[in-house]
Amino acid sequence: MAKRNKRSQGLGDTIEKVIKATGLDKFVDGKDCGCEERKQKLKDMYPYRYKARCMTELEYKEWGKFREIRTLTLSVTQVNYICELFASLFNRQVWKPCTNCSQLKELISMIDKIDKIYDTY
C-alpha cells in the first residue's frame, strides 16, 4: 500500500518534502542540522492556511449592521471595510481586489469567510 502524503501546512513542509524526494536528506546522515526549527519557522512565516481570530464585540456589532444593509453593489468605503476587517481577522496584509475584473470573486470569498466567523457566535 502506498504511503499517503500529509498535506503541507506551510512552506517548511513543502521544502522538507522536496529535500526527501530528491534524496538530499541523506547528506545530513542523522546529524541535527536545525532542520526542524527551520521547517517550523518557515511554516509560521508562510502558512498555507490562515487561522482566524475571534471578532471583538465591536467588530461583531459592526459586521451585523453591515450585513443588514449589504447589497450587490458595494461602495469603495464598504470594500475597504471588508478588506481591512478580513486582514485583521486572518492576520494578513490588507489586500484590495480589483472590483472591475475577475478578482471580484476574491472579495466575495472574503465576505463569505467573515460571515462564517460571524455566524459562529
Features:
mainly alpha, 121 residues, 0% strand
In short:
The chain is mostly helical and 121 residues long.
Task: Characterise the protein shown here.
The chain has 121 residues and is an all-alpha fold. The protein folds into 2 domains: 11-45, no CATH class; 57-119, no CATH class. It contains 5 helices and no strands. The protein has helices at residues 11-22, 35-45, 57-69, 76-89, 104-119. Helix 1 (11-22) packs across helix 2 and helix 4 (76-89) packs across helix 5. It is elongated, with a radius of gyration of 20 Å. The model has no long low-confidence stretch (mean pLDDT 83).
Shape: elongated
Radius of gyration: 20 Å
Q: Between the first and last Cα atoms, what is the distance in angstroms?
A: 43 Å
In DSSP terms (H or I, runs of 4 or more residues), the helix count works out at 5
